[in-house]
From TrEMBL:
Keywords of the record: DNA-binding
Gene Ontology terms for molecular function: single-stranded DNA binding
Keyword DNA-binding in record: yes
Record organism: Cellulomonas biazotea
Record-level GO BP terms: DNA replication
The keyword Acetylation is assigned to this record: no
SUPFAM superfamilies hit by this protein: Nucleic acid-binding proteins
Protein name, entry field: Single-stranded DNA-binding protein
Source superkingdom: Bacteria
Length: 172
């Protein structure tokens, strides 16, 4: 994220179908609508109250786009971190605007349920570099069409560090 930008974290619900866009000359992206409603506890009434619901269009690009498209569904609770901007366009009813969050990170809100994480890497980037680096790190575009799930954690942590990672914390 750059300086002089409006970076924020939103907590809410996926309010539309999650749509994934890709093509031969297009950077892949995924888009969905998100609703966020402020809530507070009204002590006098002894009940939770809802404030105004704010709607945002969330867009995420490149390798994150396919992961989001495969992970989220309408109605899911989500946490989104990204940069806020405004899109303007012309409709039959006149000029329109929409709040858009260009997401850097998207995930399920685990306050409302559980999730199982499955790490993915681009099969093409593994073939291109041979060392597991992302293709973006070596200057090639990321291929998100052939993601492979790594099922063995030993592939993620060098063998000499496995025992260190499994050791209990000192003083814990």
């Amino acid at each position: 994220m750059s300086t002089h930008s409006l970076d924020l974290t939103l907590v809410g619900w996926v309010g539309s179908e999650v749509r994934h866009f890709h093509g031969p000359d297009t950077t892949p992206f995924t888009s969905f609508r998100m609703a966020s409603t402020r809530r507070w506890f009204d002590r006098a009434a002894g009940a939770w109250r809802d404030g105004r619901t704010e709607w945002f269009t969330v867009k995420i690009w490149r390798s994150g786009a396919l992961n989001v498209a495969q992970s989220l569904r309408k109605g899911d609770p989500v946490v989104v971190h990204g940069r806020l901007s405004t899109e303007e366009w012309q409709s039959d009813d006149g000029p329109r605007t929409s709040l858009v969050v260009e997401a850097a990170a998207v995930g399920h809100d685990l306050t409302f349920g559980t999730s199982r994480f499955a790490r993915t890497v681009s099969a093409a980037s593994l073939d291109a570099t041979g060392d597991g680096q992302d293709a973006d790190e070596v200057g090639a575009p990321a291929d998100v069409s052939g993601l492979v799930e790594l099922r063995d954690d030993e592939q993620l942590v060098p063998a000499e560090h496995v025992e260190d990672a499994l050791a209990p914390a000192v003083g814990g």
